[in-house]
Design brief:
alpha+beta, 4-stranded mixed beta sheet
Length: 210
């Protein structure tokens, strides 16, 4: 015999499943808005809707990304959730990963530490593809000195003269690249190397009333 509690839970899952299917059918010709958040920005097994809709978001889809540039280290999954109140899809980027870049956070941190003279570089040493990617990342960091200095504000010195100074200061302020990325994403809606549209909170005027 199935207990009443288990029966209710089963019917709840069925109801949510068909609610998502109905939503997808109603809006199959409309491109869903997508926002990306980091996994460490919320607690529990799923985030809340960034538009603050009252309903619970539902597991909607997932997609894979390569773990490394040479595509030899396998892939990881990015889970996507759907708010059926407003139609927003929320992708959850796992910790240790970068937005749109196939570089592990720890290895980029080690490479930047080496550029800034506060570390010996990634271990094991990077191959040619990674070397070039680290160089591009450092170039992007240098191009964003003013923007990032403004983003960190009083947490860092006001006399930043070069990218080495900037990196040393933000590492000292946040402790790790993972925490730097989390701070920028949750409080400034930007990333370290670029301002991605998917990090910007959507217009809350579309929220369904509670």
């Amino acid at each position: 015999m199935i207990s009443g509690r288990r029966r209710i839970a089963s019917w709840t899952k069925i109801r949510d499943h068909w609610r998502i299917l109905d939503f997808q059918n109603d809006f199959k010709d409309v491109s869903l808005e997508v926002m990306q958040i980091r996994q460490d920005s919320f607690k529990g097994d799923r985030p809340s809707c960034p538009r603050r809709c009252p309903g619970r978001v539902h597991r909607h889809d997932r997609y894979s990304r390569y773990e490394s540039l040479d595509r030899k280290a396998g892939q990881f999954w990015v889970q996507r959730f759907l708010c059926t109140d407003c139609g927003l899809a929320v992708s959850v980027l796992p910790t240790g990963r970068l937005t749109y870049r196939a570089l592990p956070v720890q290895r980029l941190q080690d490479a930047n530490d080496q550029e800034a003279g506060i570390g010996s570089g990634p271990d094991p040493p990077p191959g040619q593809l990674e070397v070039e990617a680290f160089q591009r990342a450092w170039t992007d960091l240098k191009a964003r000195m003013f923007h990032l200095s403004h983003a960190f504000g009083q947490m860092i010195s006001s006399t930043i003269s070069c990218a080495r100074d900037l990196w040393q200061q933000i590492r000292r302020a946040q402790g790790s690249l993972e925490r730097i990325l989390s701070f920028l994403a949750t409080t400034r809606q930007i990333s370290l190397l670029k301002d991605y549209r998917c990090l910007i909170p959507p217009d809350t005027s579309f929220c369904s009333p509670g």
